[in-house]
């Protein structure tokens, strides 16, 4: 790498701070003097704090030392672009995160319009076959598959210790970023009965009214809708069958519609009760803005939550930009943007404990009490078992 | 062989080269790759017959049954209505009507996919314009009282007919226009009744173009994917949707089984297209000699 006086100065400041030669204030002033943007300074300071508090511990794979981070930023800028797959701008507020990324680092993001809408399976195929993607946002089963298939590379972001053990790979090959829980998204203009729990969906007034978001053998959203139904009907994470049986019952009652619980169909009233991710429901509630009135609620007997995981492609053409992208999305700023997009950021508890969640944002979210019976699913063997059961079970539902 | 003839043969072969490249790249190679993939496990790469398990499981044959039914129903509806409309257009003898009808047919025959699905949800869905208006006038709810569902094989048949009818019009216009008035006049002069003319002249000549058009409609319906998926999100299992599930699915991801299903689809397509080619060869004898 060519000698960069700015970088050298950051490195010098960082090591002085890490070695306690200067205090935090002097360090911040020094960084600001160099003309760095605030988020960049935040990143460096966080990294240095982690490094100084875990001094002596073995170095993480990357990012955790200030020197590592500053050179990461420079190297990422040198690469000039990052290629993403399966990260659509309209998904959980990613557009705002793209904007944050561009404002902070000025690095181009490619692939958003072509591969943004890819399903997890297609993302892995793209990584394997085209070699273009640097980063991907995949369902957790596919994150594990990417690791075993040698499609991802290990990288531990600076906030690694904030993340629950169940939500990250011990070797750093993937890390969960945000999660969503299955919810009832109810058109309260059309539905006059209260919808609180699964059994309410069987009400005779709901003919052709209840919809799920796609084919559950194909889409994660509707797969979890079926699985969550198990929670309220005698099954659970270990047993999806009661959920399949419930859907069969719903189909037999004539209440289940094949119309997809898409935003359009929810807004037009074609689907009056949608079972789908809470964050998507909250987003369509805001989008509809009273036409129709929509309420989002978590089933009172419980539902399931699924995280999305981030991977860095093993043969990423821009490995540094890919790692910097990881640093960005786990930063406070980006995590709050996820929350603004109604996804539960994985560092929610840390942000909440630190009083970093603005009150006006908290007011727009469902009460935390509703989420007490929600179970986060990260066990791949259980997911695989549920998928296998669904693979054959669902054929019976749609063919009955 | 004289030198000139050989040279002409060489030139003809050269002219066919782009076509050959196209066929190789977009038909031969994909077919061979499908065939190979269908006999190999997509995870281990080992030879297997397991991908064809759908041939022995009744439940896995449902997509084939649905696709066959849907294609047959929409072919019959599209074929009959399309033929009648095409005949009406030819009989009208007004160039403007013919012009407008042909243009509309070309547009409608290509209006498919998600936009078409949305158009039908907006008109015939449970909250669709037609469904609601019909209820307002008759107080009969098509969905609740009539048990109708747009998201079913019946509903899909209606939607598919939307492009099958104009497609039939487009492919039947040329043979109908090629029917010479002098044939009818000759038959009438010889004392034939209208029915005798139909039975002995019109039907034998038009039989092959009609059947070959129906085969085209059938293949067209069988291979359609986007409209059906946009409308039913897989609640009505069809072969193309099942293939897509196996390729793109987050839950069932098995490209090998998808290849095997696609081979089944390819066999049905090959029968339709092969039958059409054979029939075309027969009918062109009559209708080409104007």
Notes on the structure:
The complex is a heterodimer of chains A (400) and B (290). Chain A folds into 3 domains: 5-74; 83-159 and 309-369, Periplasmic binding protein-like II (D-Maltodextrin-Binding Protein, domain 2); 180-305 and 373-399, D-Maltodextrin-Binding Protein, domain 2 (3-Layer(aba) Sandwich), CATH 3.40.190.10. In chain A, 45% of the residues lie in helices and 14% in strands. Chain A has helices spanning 5-18, 24-33, 38-53, 66-79, 94-105, 112-115, 120-129, 140-148, 220-231, 241-252, 263-268, 278-288, 319-329, 332-340, 348-353, 359-363, 380-399; strands spanning 81-85, 108-110, 135-139, 152-153, 175-187, 210-212, 273-277, 294-297, 303-313, 344-345, 374-376. Helix content of chain B is 75%, strand content 0%. Chain B is built from 11 helices and no strands. Chain B is globular, with a radius of gyration of 24 Å. The A-B interface holds A 119-122, 139, 141-142, 207-209, 214-220, 222-223, 257-260, 264-265, 268-270, 387, 390-392, 395-396, 398-399 and B 59-60, 62, 118, 121-122, 125-128, 143-144, 149, 151-152, 231-237, 241, 244-245, 247-253.
Characterize the largest beta sheet of chain B: strand count, sense, and whether it forms a barrel.
none
Please, what is the average pLDDT of chain B? 87
CATH class of the largest domain in chain A: Alpha Beta
Number of strands of chain B: 0
In short:
The complex is a heterodimer of chains A (400) and B (290). Chain A is α/β, with parallel strands linked by helices.
């Amino acid at each position: 790498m060519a000698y960069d006086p700015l970088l050298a100065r950051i490195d010098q400041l960082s090591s002085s701070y890490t070695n306690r030669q200067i205090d935090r204030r002097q360090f911040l002033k020094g960084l600001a003097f160099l003309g760095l943007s605030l988020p960049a300074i935040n990143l460096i300071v966080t990294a240095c704090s982690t490094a100084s508090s875990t001094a002596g511990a073995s170095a993480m794979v990357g990012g955790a030392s200030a020197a590592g981070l500053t050179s990461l930023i420079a190297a990422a800028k040198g690469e000039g672009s990052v290629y993403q797959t399966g990260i659509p701008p309209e998904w959980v507020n990613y557009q705002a995160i793209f904007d944050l990324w561009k404002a902070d680092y000025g690095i181009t993001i490619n692939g958003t319009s072509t591969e943004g809408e890819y399903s997890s399976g297609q993302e892995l195929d793209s990584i394997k076959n085209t070699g273009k993607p640097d980063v991907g946002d995949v369902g957790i089963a596919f994150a594990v598959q990417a690791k075993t298939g040698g499609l991802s590379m290990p990288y531990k972001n600076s906030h690694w210790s904030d993340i629950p053990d169940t939500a990250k790979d011990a070797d750093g090959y993937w890390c969960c970023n945000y999660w969503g829980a299955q919810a009832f998204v109810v058109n309260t203009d059309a539905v006059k009965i209260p919808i609180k729990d699964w059994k309410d969906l069987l009400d005779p007034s709901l003919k052709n009214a209840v919809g799920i978001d796609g084919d559950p053998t194909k889409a994660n959203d509707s797969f979890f809708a079926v699985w969550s139904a198990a929670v309220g009907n005698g099954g659970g994470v270990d047993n999806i069958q009661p959920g399949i049986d419930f859907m069969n019952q719903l189909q037999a009652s004539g209440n289940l519609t094949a119309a997809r619980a898409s935003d359009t169909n929810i807004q037009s009233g074609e689907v009056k009760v949608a079972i789908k991710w809470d964050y998507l429901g909250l987003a369509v509630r805001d989008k509809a803005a009273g036409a129709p009135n929509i309420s989002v609620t978590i089933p009172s007997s419980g539902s399931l939550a699924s995280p999305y995981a981030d991977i860095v492609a093993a043969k990423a053409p821009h490995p540094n930009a890919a790692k910097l992208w990881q640093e960005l999305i786990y930063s406070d700023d980006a995590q709050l943007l996820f929350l603004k997009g109604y996804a539960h950021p994985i560092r929610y508890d840390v942000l909440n404990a630190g009083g970093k969640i603005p009150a006006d944002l908290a007011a727009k979210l469902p009460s935390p009490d509703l989420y007490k019976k929600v179970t986060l699913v990260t066990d791949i063997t259980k997911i695989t078992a549920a998928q296998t059961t669904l693979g054959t079970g669902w054929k019976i539902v749609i063919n009955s | 062989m004289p030198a000139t003839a050989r040279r002409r043969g060489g030139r003809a072969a050269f002219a066919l080269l782009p076509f050959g490249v196209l066929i190789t790249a977009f038909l031969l190679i994909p077919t061979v790759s499908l065939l190979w993939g269908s006999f190999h496990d997509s995870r281990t790469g080992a030879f297997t017959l397991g991908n064809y398990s759908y041939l022995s499981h009744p439940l896995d044959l449902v997509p084939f049954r649905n696709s066959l039914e849907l294609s047959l129903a929409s072919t019959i509806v599209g074929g009959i209505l399309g033929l009648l409309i095409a005949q009406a257009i030819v009989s009208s003898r007004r160039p403007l009507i013919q012009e407008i009808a042909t243009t509309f047919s070309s547009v409608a025959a290509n209006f498919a996919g998600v936009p078409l699905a949305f158009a039908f949800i907006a008109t015939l869905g449970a909250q669709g314009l037609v469904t609601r208006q019909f209820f307002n006038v008759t107080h009969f709810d098509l969905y609740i009282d009539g048990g109708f569902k747009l998201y079913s094989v019946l509903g899909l048949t209606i939607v598919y007919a939307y492009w099958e009818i104009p497609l039939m019009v487009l492919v039947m216009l040329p043979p109908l226009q090629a029917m010479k008035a002098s044939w009818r006049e000759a038959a009438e002069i010889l004392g034939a009744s209208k029915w005798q003319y139909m039975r002995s002249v019109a039907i034998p000549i038009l039989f092959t173009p009609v059947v070959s058009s129906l085969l085209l409609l059938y293949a067209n319906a069988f291979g359609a994917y986007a409209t059906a998926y946009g409308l039913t999100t897989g609640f009505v299992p069809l072969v193309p949707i099942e293939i897509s599930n196996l390729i793109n699915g987050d839950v069932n991801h098995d490209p090998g089984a998808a290849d095997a299903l696609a081979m089944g689809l390819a066999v049905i397509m090959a029968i339709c297209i092969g039958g059409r080619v054979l029939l075309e060869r027969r009918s062109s004898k009559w209708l080409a000699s104007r």
